[in-house]
Each structure stands twice: as C-alpha cells, then as structure tokens.
Design the sequence.
C-alpha cells in the first residue's frame, strides 16, 4: 500500500526544515513553502476520502520498538479524517493570513518553521494508531506551542504565557503518560484498535479509576478545563495567527480529540459521567461569565473558547449517542467561527494598534467589511438561527433536558446549559457593541482602515462556511459529521436530522430564552456597573505564580544547603550516593562473588600499573601545584590507555588516548576560572574521612570491573560477537554496538553532548576578564613554528577520514575520528589564536552539531522506509573501477552524525573556554566598576 499517511505526516516537518535551513529565503517564498504543506496535505487527504466516507480505516504501520509494543502505526478513520481536515484547512488559511499580519521586524522563517512543526505534531497525534506514539506527538505539541506562544520573546507577557502553557500542559502530559501505561497494562497492548475494542475489560479493571483520572488530567490541562483553564488567556500574548490556529482547531482541541478518541474505551461508567460532565459544566459557566468582563478582544475570545471547550466536554461526559454527535458537531462549528473571530480581532489590532475595547467603538463606519464579517461570526458564536452555532447549541439543549443520572443531575445540566446560552449571547453582544458600535474609536495612534484584500480572504471563507452550514447543514456538513461520529459510536450510531427547523419545542424555547436573557443581561450590566472600569483578576494565574514561587524558594533552600559552591561537598555527596546505590543490592541479598582465579600478569603489566599508581599518589602529594597536578592526572590517563592496549582493546585505547589529550587541554583552560589562591587547608579528620570514602568507592568499582571481566564467555558479549558480522555487516564489534545494537543509546548520548556544548557556549559567550586579570604587554610568542601546525592539519584530516571509514571493520569510527580532527585545530588555536584560525577555516561549530544530529536522525529513520526498525543496518557492495569492491554499511550515515557532533561539540567547548575576551568598555578596562551601571543581560558596563 502507498504510505499516504506517512507522506501526509512528513510534509510539515520536511517543509519546516527546508524553511529553517534554506539561506536567504524571502518572506514570500517562506509563506509559499509553508502554505504548500497544508495544501499538498489536503490533496493527499482527498485521495483517501472516499474510502473513509465508506467506513474504511486507512492504515500504514511499521515496526519500531516491538519489545515495548511501540509500532510506528498511522490510522485514519472518520474522526482522524475530520481533525486532519481541520488542522490542514485552517492551517492553510492561517499561513495566508500570517503573511499579511507579520511585521517586517518579525522573522517569517522562524514563525513558519514553528507553525509547521506544530502542524506536524498535531497531525501525528491525530493519525497515531498506537497510544505510545500518540504520547510522543502529544508532547511535541506542547513544545512547539511553547515556541509559538513565546514567538515575541522580547515581551514579558509572551515569555510568561509560553512558560505557563508549557508547565501546565507538560504536567498534564506526564499524568496522561501514566494513564496510558496503566491502560496498556490492563489491555496488554498499546495498539489503538485493541484498546478501543477493550472497553469492557478496561472498565472492569481495578486500575480503571486511576487510569481514567490520569488520562482526564492530561485532557483537562490541554483543553483548558477547570481548574487548569487559567493558562489559555495568558497565551493570548502570542501573535494572532497563532491564537487563531492553536485556540480554534488545534492545540486546545487536542484534549477533546483524545476524549472523543478514547470514548469507546473509557466512557460508560458513573465515574466518567460525573467527572467529565461536572468539569465540563463548571468550565462552560466559568469561561462564559468571565468572558463578559474582559476588555481585550482576544481575552474575551479566550474565555469564550474555554466556555465552548467546556460545552464539548459536557456533551462527551453525558455519553448518550446524540450527545457524542453534538460534541463532534460543535468541534467543527467552534473551529470555524472562532478562527474567523480571532483573525478579525487580529485585523482590528493590525489596523488600529489596539485590542482594548475601551478604546474602540464605531469601527463599522471605518472598517465596514471587516465589521460585517466579525458580526456574523459573533452571531454564530452566540447561537443565532441560520448560523452553524445555533444547530449544535440546539443539540446541547436537547441533550441537557434528557440527561441521564438522578433528576437533580438533569436539572443541574439543564440550568448550566441555559445559563451558558445567556452568557454566550451577552459576551458576543459585548464583542459586537463595544467594537463596532458606539461613539469611538478614540486615543488611537492611527486612522483605522480596511486591511489588505487577501488578509480578509481567510475570514471570508470561514464566515461563508458558518452561513452555509447554518442554512443547509444536510448538504454541507452531514457527511463529515456522520463519518466522524460513526468512528466513535460504531453500531450505536443514532438516527438524527440536521434540519434547520424542528418545530416549536423545548430546545427552541431555551434558545429564545438564552437570546433574550443575554441581551437583557448585557444591557442590564451596562446600567448597573461600568463594564469598562471592571478590574480583571485571574485567581488561577495568581495561584500558579504563588506555587511557582514556593517551589523556587524550596529549591533555593535545598540548593543553598547542598550546593553551596563547595566542589568537595558535591563530590562527597555524589560518591556517597553511588556507594549506597551500589551496595544496597548486596546488603539486601548477601552473596559472595564467584571469582575465577586471576591470570598471571607479565612484567609490562606490572610496570604500567606501578606508573599509574605513582602518578595518582604524586597528584595527591603536590595538588597545590596545579599545572604539575594536571600533568600527573594526564599520566594516569595515558597509563589507562596503555593498559587497554595491553588487554588487546585498541578501540578503547584510541578513545582513551584522544579523550585524555582533549581533557588535558580542557583542564588547562579551566584554570582560567580558578581563584588565584587556593582555599585554606582542610582539617586532618576530613582528609582521613575522604581517604576512607575514596578507598571504599575505588575498591567497590574495582571489584565490579573484575567481576565483569571474569564473566563466563557465554554471556551477552558472546552473542554480540556472533551477531556483529551477519546482522550488522561489521567486524569491529565495538563500533557495531555503538552504531547498531545500541545505536539509540548513542543517539541519546550525542544529543546530550551537543546540548552540553551549547550550554557551555551560552554561559561563556559573553564572559569578560576582570581588569586585574589582563596581562600587560603583547601576547607571548610560543617557540613552535606556525607552519608546523598548518602542515599538521591536512595530515591529521587524512588520518581522521581514514579512521572514520575503517571504523566498522577495524579500530576507528566516528567518535575517534572526530577527536582526531579536533586535536590539530586545538594546536592551531593555541599557536595562532582564535581570530587567525576562525578567519581561515570559518567553522560554525553550532551548525556542525545541529547538522550531525540531523544526519544521525535521518539515517536512523531511513531504515523505516524499508519496513524495518529505527537504525537497522543495511549493506551494499560497490564495484568501482580501479579500486575494486568497496563494502558499505548504512551505519556509516549514523556514524557521520556522530563524527560531526563530537568534532563540533569538542571544538565549541574548548574554543569558548580558551577565548575569554577583555571587557569592551573603557571604564572597565581602567578598573572603574559601578554595579548600578552593569547590564543585567550581559554583565557589561553601560
């Protein structure tokens, strides 16, 4: 089968990478590339639409980590098809809208890259056919939305809103992960088809309440349900295209999507009914009531979004077949009118310079076309007849008066629905009246006018959909609604009618009461209080910050008590914890080691170890002479490398030798950061204590190493030796382990190494020497010819490439080759200086790290295109003229990524540590320091 779903999922990620990496990309070209992702995605979706509408489920699946039940499985049924259409369709409109919304100062490339990353994450979550895979994309939506909300990072409110959204939804994601693991334990599988078919088994399990509550915690945080709703209004600091996308069709809908997705597995119990419907009703009312008193256009829309998400949650909580249909229907309706309203609010902000309704008013005279579009969308939000919001609101009223459970529950749900209708009309009326009618606008710094023609097109299309669905629902939305609802309900799908007129009945009367009551409430509030003078206080935001401050204070107290700047104390704690953790299993289950008789050691071995011990003891004796101590520690490392040679481990010996060379330079550079004078001598009893602890730790580590080296040959090592050549096509089992058998571990390790290098760069890039540390006079000339260092580089580069290419079958590989390449450059840095080296070579070590990680990831993922797990090796024998047969393993691609990351990371760390610049300012160079004139951002003098 053609991997249509994989192509659909890959499009946003590929184009996001293209936009980010292509240099000198114009704003128009970036917008076109960004728009291509949803447009091509809609074309691919259209190719499978007939099958989905016929009730089929389209699947693409590849094995990934079968040991833990994780397959890269994609699944498109009616519900996923509907959400995919929303994500792509509204995404395409947002891209067009953003092209005209973003200012010349905003980075279009960065914006569209983040937007497509989020789009891909949403598609992955919607299309996932495995709960663990769904979790991967769920968390990616949190990360990418953090980037989008904080896009204007120069603004404090944007940073705060992004951080709050990430903490709340990230915490909910951890709870959701725990719930998913419990569901997997109950069912015995994470495959979505199996889980959805095991509803009775899940509900009968003793773990069901815990699994349900944990899953609901993830859903409620993502969809801003009470008491986690406070993060959504703070996220309005994002650019309006982000708000229109995240808060209409995507991020906040992720929670209700998962609620609908897992409805067959989790619904059907009293616990589900009361918790979901109760939280939904509370959120519905709290959001609607607070929306009335907002002064910011986007703030009002944010609280109304909270309310409508509560409405959808309430409907799924009621769990009747028609309530589920109504919930799905309102997901569609809310996406259209809310996206159009956010875009209209963005147009108003774009053309007037403000979103404050206290400064607006009378815009219908200055912006008549935009006003008409926004008014129609507002009426749809209020649930006025002949617009799409009216139909799903009617369904809500019908389900509320027939809700299950005790009579008091039915009464409570009916009252909540009616009050929500009243409040919805009131805040919609305020949006319309305070913005487009009245005497304003005033106190503006510009004269409002209509936006560019194409900026209004997305709003026009969405408003047309609102009207078309409201007037002719059976001809427009019926097939979409039926396909999505049927994928949830299955055989329980009810018969229903999408007619506009159902006669005079109780739901219609409730709609009329809602409209009349909403108008009366709004104008009544205007007479009783001054709505423009109301001060809005977010209790949830204040509680969140209070808890954050309390946690930070606790962390600070713990840090001050444990990490007080004493390296000795930190090392003592680290070693003690290691001793306790290692000794605990032996204390719990005492057993004497079954060691074999040691082999005789030749004279060379004794000589190496005697030199090693002599260097170690000498280091302890002359530790105050720092340079000599560092050199002696290097001698210990050199003896370890020679010991590996002695034990016939050339790969380890090469690695140890090169690491020792680089570490020696690192330690020498680190002396720049040490105080000129050592601290006072420690008491004798502390020295004895430390000696005892060191001896215990060393003896334990030595015993562990001896136990590992004397294991019988029929262990994992023997299996790896037997499988290296036939399965991974490599004779060097050490390299095969790194790039194949344990390739995923290696990928994690190079990722951590790259992050560490970037952290060092971030910490040291603005470091400046204190005036008293600047050496007077010209730089000291080293007695080493500069030409020698230049000759060494091409020779060492050749050796590096040689070791890299042979690494799969002989000692070498990407890690060793990267270190070999770093050594001559370090020598040139020392001899010729940073400016000279970087002006000739022009290495960008940060890009080198990123490129290496990308190559490693893509080479590992390429195997999945052939239906095999991530990082599975392939083999190819090339016959080249003159050269002959050249064996190639696909692992060379992954090893290339390791090569680049190691080289880039080492050079970035050492070049930053060796390039400590003097202060830029004349006052600082003269020793005139004034802490009140120091920059809080860079530490520089103003």
Sequence:
């Amino acid at each position: 089968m053609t991997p249509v779903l994989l192509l659909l999922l890959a499009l946003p990620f590929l184009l996001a990478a293209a936009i980010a990496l292509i240099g000198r990309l114009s704003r128009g070209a970036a917008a076109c590339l960004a728009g291509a992702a949803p447009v091509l995605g809609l074309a691919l979706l259209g190719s499978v639409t007939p099958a989905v509408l016929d009730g089929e489920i389209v699947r693409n699946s590849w094995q990934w980590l079968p040991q833990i039940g994780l397959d890269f499985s994609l699944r498109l049924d009616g519900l996923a098809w509907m959400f995919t259409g929303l994500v792509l369709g509204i995404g395409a409109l947002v891209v067009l809208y953003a092209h005209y919304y973003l200012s010349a100062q905003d980075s279009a490339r960065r914006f569209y890259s983040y937007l497509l990353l989020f789009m891909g994450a949403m598609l992955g979550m919607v299309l996932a056919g495995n709960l663990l895979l769904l979790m991967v994309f769920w968390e990616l939506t949190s990360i990418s939305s953090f980037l989008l909300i904080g896009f204007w990072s120069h603004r404090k409110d944007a940073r705060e809103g992004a951080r709050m959204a990430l903490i709340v939804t990230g915490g909910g994601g951890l709870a959701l992960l725990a719930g998913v693991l419990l569901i997997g334990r109950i069912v015995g599988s994470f495959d979505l088809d199996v889980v959805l078919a095991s509803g009775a088994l899940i509900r009968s399990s003793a773990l069901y309440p815990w699994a349900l509550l944990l899953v609901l915690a993830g859903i409620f945080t993502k969809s801003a349900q009470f008491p986690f709703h406070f993060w959504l209004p703070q996220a309005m600091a994002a650019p309006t295209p982000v708000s229109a996308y995240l808060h209409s069709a995507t991020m906040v809908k992720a929670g209700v999507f998962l609620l609908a997705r897992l409805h067959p597995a989790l619904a059907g119990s009293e616990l589900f009914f009361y918790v979901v419907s109760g939280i939904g009703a509370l959120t519905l009312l709290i959001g609607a009531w607070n929306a009335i008193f907002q002064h910011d256009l986007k703030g009002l829309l944010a609280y109304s979004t909270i309310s409508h998400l509560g409405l959808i949650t309430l409907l799924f909580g009621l769990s009747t077949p028609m309530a589920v249909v109504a919930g799905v229907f309102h997901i569609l309706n809310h996406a259209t009118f809310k996206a159009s309203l956010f875009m209209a609010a963005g147009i108003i902000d774009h053309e007037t310079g403000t979103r404050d309704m206290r400064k607006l008013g009378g815009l219908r005279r200055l912006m008549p076309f935009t006003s008409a579009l926004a008014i129609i969308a507002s009426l749809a939000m209020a649930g006025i007849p002949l617009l799409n919001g009216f139909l799903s609101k009617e369904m809500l009223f019908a389900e509320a008066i027939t809700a299950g459970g005790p009579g008091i529950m039915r009464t409570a749900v009916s009252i909540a629905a009616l009050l929500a209708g009243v409040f919805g009309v009131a805040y919609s009326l305020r949006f319309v009246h305070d913005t487009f009618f009245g005497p304003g606008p005033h106190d503006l710094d510009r004269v409002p006018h209509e936006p560019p023609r194409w900026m209004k097109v997305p709003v026009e299309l969405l408003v047309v959909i609102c009207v078309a669905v409201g007037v002719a629902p059976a001809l427009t939305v019926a097939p979409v609604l039926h396909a999505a609802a049927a994928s949830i309900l299955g055989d329980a799908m009810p018969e229903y009618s999408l007619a506009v007129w159902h006669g005079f009945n109780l739901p219609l009367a409730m709609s009329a009461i809602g409209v009349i009551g909403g108008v009366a409430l709004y104008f009544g509030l205007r007479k009783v209080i001054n709505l423009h003078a109301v001060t809005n206080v977010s209790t949830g935001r204040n509680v969140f910050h209070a808890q954050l401050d309390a946690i930070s204070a606790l962390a600070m107290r713990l840090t001050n008590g444990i990490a007080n700047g004493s390296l000795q104390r930190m090392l003592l704690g680290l070693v003690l914890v290691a001793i306790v953790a290692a000794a605990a299993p032996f204390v719990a289950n005492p057993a004497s080691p079954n060691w074999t008789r040691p082999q005789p050691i030749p004279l060379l071995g004794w000589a190496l170890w005697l030199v090693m011990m002599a260097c170690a003891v000498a280091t302890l004796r002359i530790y105050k002479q720092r340079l000599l101590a560092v050199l002696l520690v290097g001698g210990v490392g050199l003896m370890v490398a020679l010991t590996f040679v002695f034990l016939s481990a050339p790969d380890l010996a090469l690695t140890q030798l090169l690491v020792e060379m680089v570490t020696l330079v690192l330690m020498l550079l680190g002396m720049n950061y040490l105080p000129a004078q050592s601290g006072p001598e420690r008491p004798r009893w502390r020295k004895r204590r430390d000696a005892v602890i060191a001896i215990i730790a060393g003896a334990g580590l030595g015993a562990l190493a001896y136990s590992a080296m004397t294991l019988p040959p029929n262990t994992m090592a023997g299996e790896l030796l037997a499988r290296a050549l036939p399965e991974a096509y490599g004779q060097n089992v050490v390299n095969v382990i790194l790039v194949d058998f344990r390739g995923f571990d290696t990928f994690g390790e190079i990722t951590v190494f790259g992050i560490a290098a970037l952290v060092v760069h971030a910490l040291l890039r603005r470091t400046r020497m204190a005036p008293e540390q600047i050496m007077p006079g010209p730089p000291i000339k080293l007695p080493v010819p500069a030409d020698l260092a230049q000759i060494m580089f091409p020779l060492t580069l050749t050796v590096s490439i040689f070791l890299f290419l042979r690494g799969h079958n002989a000692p070498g590989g990407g890690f060793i080759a990267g270190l070999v390449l770093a050594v001559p450059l370090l020598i040139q840095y020392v001899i010729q200086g940073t400016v000279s080296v970087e002006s000739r070579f022009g290495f960008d070590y940060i890009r080198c790290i990123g490129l290496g990680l990308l190559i490693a990831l893509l080479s590992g993922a390429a195997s999945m295109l052939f239906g095999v797990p991530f990082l599975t090796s392939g083999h190819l024998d090339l016959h080249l003229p003159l050269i002959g047969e050249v064996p190639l393993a696909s692992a060379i691609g992954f090893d290339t990524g390791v090569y680049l990351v190691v080289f880039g990371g080492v050079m970035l760390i050492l070049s930053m540590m060796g390039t400590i610049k003097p202060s830029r300012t004349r006052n600082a160079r003269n020793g005139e320091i004034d802490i009140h004139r120091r920059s809080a951002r860079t530490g520089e003098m103003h």
